[in-house]
């Protein structure tokens, strides 16, 4: 990778990292995909996601699964970590958080395909696991998104797969 490919990456390796305690999509950084001609998944598992209930201000905890097929740009992982951290004091329902994350990542990367799945820990005896996805309109990725939306959760929850 040459320096031009990394000119927009400022957070990786920075020892003076600042954590934003309020929602901040501007922290997301991207770099050039060296293999845009290939279809491949990039997957992130983020087991320490936290946001706040917008009504009670109680904390909500989740594992966030992000999978995408890059086009020209890819998200840099440290910036993604800081972005997800910025939800820590953000008041939003689970479903809203997943849709916001999806839209922000589409905005910065324009991936061929992307899905975001939040598996929230139960509160009040119930868990909420919103799933959202997107594929470029008019392409096989749009068809993939429709198929995966219809079939994303074929297996019922058990205590050992949460």
From TrEMBL:
Pfam families: QueF. It is an enzyme of class 1 (oxidoreductase). Its EC number is 1.7.1.13. It catalyses: 7-aminomethyl-7-carbaguanine + 2 NADP(+) = 7-cyano-7-carbaguanine + 2 NADPH + 3 H(+). One of its GO terms (cellular component) is cytoplasm. The keyword Repressor does not apply. This is NADPH-dependent 7-cyano-7-deazaguanine reductase. Its main location: cytoplasm. It is found in: Cytoplasm. Belongs to the GTP cyclohydrolase I family. QueF type 1 subfamily. Substrate binds at residues 75-77, 94-95. The active site is at residues 53, 60. It comes from Helicobacter cappadocius.
């Amino acid at each position: 990778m040459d320096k031009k490919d990394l000119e927009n990456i400022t957070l990786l390796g920075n020892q003076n990292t600042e954590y934003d305690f309020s929602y901040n999509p501007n922290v997301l950084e991207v770099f050039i995909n060296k293999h845009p001609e290939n279809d491949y998944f990039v997957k992130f598992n983020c087991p320490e996601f936290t946001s706040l209930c917008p009504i009670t201000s109680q904390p909500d905890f989740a594992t966030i699964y992000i999978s995408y097929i890059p086009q020209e740009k890819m998200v840099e992982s440290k910036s993604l970590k800081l972005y997800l951290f910025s939800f820590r004091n953000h008041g939003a329902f689970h479903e809203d958080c997943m849709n916001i994350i999806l839209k922000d990542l589409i905005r910065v990367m324009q991936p061929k395909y992307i899905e975001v799945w939040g598996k929230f820990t139960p509160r009040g005896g119930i868990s909420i696991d919103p799933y959202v996805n997107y594929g470029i309109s008019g392409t096989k990725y749009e068809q993939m998104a429709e198929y995966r939306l219809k079939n994303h959760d074929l297996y019922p929850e058990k205590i050992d797969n949460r």
